[in-house]
Each structure stands twice: as structure tokens, then as C-alpha cells.
Amino acid sequence: MTISSRSWARVDPDYDARVERIVELGPGLFALRYRFYDQQIGVVVGSDGVLVIDTRSTHRQADELRADIGRLTPLPVTVVVNTHGH
């Protein structure tokens, strides 16, 4: 059996994409939790930009993350650190 890299990333179009919880861990330091794969995302809001630690699993989920970050700050994402590949 062959599993392509695209097959595992397919997501039910009705999955719950909303951020489940946002916790401010300190000034400008946030943890965002998504139910899908129990994803934990780090966000650090600096004086002129945002650092994001992990961008979720798909392009669609990254877009959703960007929208959620936009609810925290109007600053642009300037640095992304992905701790592992999907």
C-alpha cells in the first residue's frame, strides 16, 4: 500500500477549525490550542511584528491561524519557526 503525502492531509470540510483556547502566558506571549490533532501554536507579539511557532498542518489551517493572530494584534507575522514538517 502506498500513502501519498497528500492523502494524510485531507481534512473533512466540516471539521472544527476554530481555535479552542487562547491563553496569554505573559505580556505578548500566547498559546493557541486547536482541537484538530490537539495542535498547540506559540505566538510572540513584539514591538513591530509577530513570531509564530508552528503553522498547523495545511495551507487552509495556516490561513485560519493567520486570521486568529489578527484577532490578537494588527502587527504582521515577520518570523515563522516550524519545529517539524507536515
Q: What is the H/E order?
A: EEEEHE
Helix content: 10-25%
Shape: globular
Q: With helices defined by DSSP (H or I, 4 residues minimum), what is the helix count?
A: 1
Rg (CA only):
14 Å
Mean pLDDT: 83
Distance between the termini: 20 Å
- What's the story with the biggest beta sheet? 5 strands, mixed
Assembly context of the chains: single chain
Q: How many beta-strand segments?
A: 5
Structural class: alpha+beta
Number of domains: 1
Across the major sheet, the strand order is 1-2-3-4-5
Q: Name the beta content range.
A: 25-35%
Low-pLDDT stretches are: 1-9
Could you characterize what this model shows?
- The chain has 86 residues and is α+β, with helices and mostly antiparallel strands.
- The protein has one domain (18-81).
- Helix content is 16%, strand content 35%.
- The chain has a five-stranded mixed sheet, covered by helices on one side.
- Residues 1-9 have low confidence and may be disordered.
